[in-house]
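Issue 218. Parser rejects a valid record. Input:
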Amino acid sequence: MRRFDRPGRSAAYGSRGMAATSAPLATLAAIDTLRAGGNAADAAVVASAVLCVVEPAMTGIGGDCFALVGQADGTVTGLNASGRAARAADADWLKASGLSSIPLRSIHAVTVPGAIDGWDRLLKAHGTMDLGEALKPAIRLAEEGVPVTPRVAHDWPEDAPHLAADAGGLRHYLKEGRAPRVGETMRYPALANTLRMIASSGSNVFYNGSIADDIIRTTSALGSLLTHDDFAAHESTWVEPISTTFMGHEILEIPPAGQGLTALIAFNILTQIGLRRHAAQSVARCHLEIEAMKLAWDLRNRHIADPEFAHVPVAELLSPQTAARLAAMIDERRALNIRTEMRNSDTVYLSVVDEGRLAVSFINSVYDGFGSCIVTPETGIALQNRGACFVTDPAHPNCIGPGKRPLHTIIPAMVKRNGRIDMSYGVMGGDYQPMGHVCVAVNRYVYDMDPQEAIDAPRYFPSNGKVLVESALDPGICAGLQALGHVLEPSGPLGGGQAIAIDHAGGMLIGGSDPRKDGLALGY
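Output the parser choked on:
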């Protein structure tokens, strides 16, 4: 139970339905959808489309999405709606290009956007409304305008110079040539028109029609290898989730090329070590989580890739033998000297549970702020730069290749207990996400925190040889970590999460939303 004499937020409660997103307008749109008779899949797509309007740096129809869909009987299916590299991105091209990496703002970081096909497939498989109906709230908001909320205004200036250097970015995502300020209204008439075309003609117009024409025209002029055939060939994939057991709960993640495997490896390490003997706010707890994540990250960077092109040894990496071997490498008195390369990214995560207890854990992203900052001039689409997650070493399983999906940082999560959905949750924030999944689940299942408390807790993250720490982390814990050899670096907010837990016995939904963002959880 939180201290009511201190700043904070109570968990949200509701019995019929609940939504948790990073923006109030998106949460409201999801709740409106549920109250009007839609289900969780409908509400998730409605909210995601609204987020493309209210948080355009974080997400958009030029990006990708993933979802885990949990049924009332505990069945969980996964949707991989991530896009692929151009089919012309072959070994000969790579060798001739001389690229040693795929830079964030490179035209070759732009991959086929998968979100629109993903939304459409999710609705057709699990929803009650069609894509056209689901896009109506976003179309209205894009036309009428939306207020720029505090966190959105805080992040926007970082990307303003890149947007100003692009004709489409300058036209559609700046206000009088600058980043908008908090409380100002932003309107997106081109995006509204694009969404209206999709609503009336279906997702096909995005991949085979005039929208694809505008994207290809824009990217080709900058040297992209993407063609109309690449867009026409795109399709999302239904996948079987991967999982592990932690504290009597089954934690489920999207399989590779997503990085959810990283979180599961860390859960297995922590199971071997045990955390309950340490306090929730203690040096030992933080140290062990940091060390487990370092080891999990090392395996992530070596193995995770598109399974259609490379073997990813999931079973071996999740085996008890691997967990025991890794746990034995951790010294409770000294930090491991493992340097892991990390990048930031921009993402939205949302969770919805309806009255029938259909649960949708959903994440949508353009990767970096406004993606590549390449914006189509006519349709107003900020194109993702997800291809920057590829490597260029031909011997590496995640090397860029024809029609290949890159390693993906965005990962929804879901938890089961006794065969039924216990929690739908996720933590956005690029490379931080597996760490966020671990910390929130540890807070809930080891230390019995409610979803809001589990999300609120101070965060820390091993990155590039240092440990990033939020200012709320206790100074005594910081000193203790330094004494163990960790090099600490002050950090801004790490990630942003949402969670909805299901109390089956009490018939109640319990939600939390990250104070590091502008959103909220709301139930009814």
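Fixed in the parser; the record now loads. The chain is about 35% helix and 20% strand.
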